[in-house]
Write the structure tokens for this entry.
Amino acid sequence: MREFKDCVEEIEVFDVNRSGLQFTWNQKPRGTDGKLKKIDRIMANLACTDGFVGAHAIFQLYRISDHSPAILTIPTSYKFTPRPFKFYNILVQNSQFKRTVKESWKYGREWFSYVQSRK
């Protein structure tokens, strides 16, 4: 068990918000007096829960297995956060920088004009 906890800490994941059955494994799913344990999990890292706000795990009633079926619901809207533009000043020191930029702008304007003429 200690190895599992160490691994979870190392890879920085945690349980997703959940509902349904508290215990996900039943030693005797069709009998009585069975041992109940929580051994099944749905885990995610911070980037996942930030990107999929409202993700939720549902642990359902035992059916044909001694494990509870787990369903992960993910909302349809995805929270997209664009990365900020980064420019490295060291590029300006390259002797080919100005020429490359001028050529790129020249080509870019022509391509933009072509696309606009096709609309």
Observations:
- The mean pLDDT is 84.
